[in-house]
Amino acid sequence: MAEGKIVISNRYVSANMGHQAGKIHDMKERDVYLEWLDNLEYGIFGIPKPDKNILLYMPTEIGQQLVDKKGDRE
């Protein structure tokens, strides 16, 4: 990254935020959690913040078809 190269990542901090925060129904609690996670990941752990996040949409039915094609995990 220091050389100006592009890094592509799957399931970075924003994915964790969306997945975990979606379980918190109270908006104030959700905001507190998101601030905590942001500080943990970027402040304490010091991982780099992305310049851009690109979200890809996939219909639920297609996603389920792909999951059904997978074998059992070891």
Layout of secondary structure:
Layout: H1 13-21, H2 27-44, H3 60-69
Task: Explain this structure.
This protein has 74 residues and is mainly alpha-helical. It has one domain. 50% of the residues lie in helices and 0% in strands. The chain has 3 helices and no strands. The protein has helices at 13-21, 27-44, 60-69. The mean pLDDT is 90.
Please give the share of residues in helix: 40-55%
- Average predicted confidence as pLDDT: 90
Largest sheet: none
The number of distinct helices, counting runs of at least 4 residues, comes to 3
Helix/strand-derived category reads mainly alpha
Low-pLDDT stretches are none
Overall number of structural domains: 1
Sheet-strand content, in percent, reads under 5%
Defining traits:
single chain; 74 residues; mainly alpha; 3 helices; 0% strand
Compact summary:
By secondary structure, the protein is an all-alpha fold. It contains 3 helices and no strands. It starts with 12 loop residues before the first helix and ends in a 5-residue tail after the last helix.
